[in-house]
Amino acid sequence: MVTGGGTAGHVIPALPVVEALLEAGSSVHFVGSAKGLEESLVAPLGIPFHGVQAGKLRRYFSFENFVDALRIPVGIAQAWRLLARIRPAVVFSKGGFVSFPVVVGAWLKGIPVVAHESDLTPGLANRLAQRFATTLCVNFEATRAERVKVVVTGTPLRRQLLNGDAVRGRERLGIDTERPVLLVVGGSLGATRLNEAVRTALGRLLADYDVIHVCGAGKMDASLGALGGYIQREYVSDDWGDIVAAADLVVSRAGANALNEWLTLGKPHLLVPLPRAASRGDQIENAAHAQSRGWSMVLSEDALNSETLVAGVAKLAALSGEFRQRMQAFRRHDSTSLIVEELSKATLAR
Fold first, then answer.
1. φ and ψ at 308, to 5 degrees?
2. Which of 48, 42, 52 is nearest to 12 (CA)?
């Protein structure tokens, strides 16, 4: 049984693991939130999907916390019944608030749990889940955890990303110029402040680049649709590997999955981490870690505007060769195989 959700970042890295398990002859079920995006992301794999109640684990005061506090025990009961019926040999948890009821349910049933954390420091769901897990697989060697076996596996990447083709990507995007491509990504939910800075700076950016802007669902600007060299997408799935392969430079948030993609593929990138006011600070930590090793350029959201964005892209272009060279020191793992191995170990030790 595989679980995770809340954002695409808690689902997409689990998909290569599911594919590997299916190829090995395993039966796999996925558990996500009852009304989340997980089902649509998992659907192409053709595996059973089960939705459970999930209460978001907030760190701040909100009346919704009281309602969600009631959803958590309901979700645990639902997960316990699913586990009793399906009887999986092991649970793989990719994190997110929907995973917590499944992990607790598995612990109550005596089913081993292998969890995975992409960020430098574990999120709240994974910190709680550690109490019930046998193993925590992590992306960064610097990640620390308590009361659980920690294994550095890296984060799985989709095969289409590893097999991306730059020529095919340009063809898919309709780019027929020789200019370099600048890819701007705000994450699966988009990034309003980053979107605004990019659009304000378009006149200057388009003088040197074709700009591919992944802006988030419902955040397209129809008035810019006919602007030559500017291509907007709400979200990219099927042709993502080719689009990334076509990119010469990247501007993105500092989510661990995105950062792992840029480092693994050697894409010079400028990170604009989500600020602490809108997160637990995990993106700031990810960005600082990568910057300290010379892999990434970082621009804080407080300092983000069209002027600093243009200047940052210009500096990134000038130093792109140095960044590519330094990123070669990033340790790349066969993450999917390592995680499948841990799942096998947990099953055998049961």
1. -70, -30
2. 42
Distance CA 256, CA 65 (A): 26
Q: Which residues contact 30 (CB under 8 A, 6 or more apart)?
A: 1, 2, 3, 14, 18, 38, 42, 45, 47, 48, 49, 50
Local structure of 298: helix, strand or coil: strand
Q: Are the C-beta atoms of 318 and 209 separated by less than 8 Å?
A: no
Q: pLDDT tens-digit profile of 145-175?
A: 877 899 999 999 988 898 999 999 999 999 9
Q: How confident is the model at residue 113 (pLDDT cuts 50, 70, 90)?
A: very high
Strand partners for 93: 3, 115
Return d(Cα 296, Cα 290) in angstroms, integer: 6
pLDDT tens for each residue of 290-305:
999 999 999 999 999 9
Closest by Cα among 169, 166, 138, 161 to 151: 138
Q: No. of H helices and E strands in the chain?
A: 15, 13
Average pLDDT, the chain: 90
Residues 43-62: tens digit of each pLDDT? 999 999 999 987 665 555 56
Q: What is the pTM of this model?
A: 0.86
- State the Cα–Cα distance between residues 129 and 142, nearest whole angstrom: 19
Distances (CA, A) of 198 to 2, 128, 190, 234: 37, 38, 12, 15
Q: What strands, in cross-sheet order, belong to the sheet with 30-33?
A: 49-52, 30-33, 2-3, 91-93, 113-117, 135-138, 149-152
Write the single-letter amino acid at 37: L
Ranges of H-type helices in 36-110: 38-42, 64-86, 99-109
**End-to-end C-alpha distance for the chain, whole angstroms:** 15
Burial class from Cβ neighbours inside 10 Å (0-12, 13-18, 19+) for residue 199 reads: buried
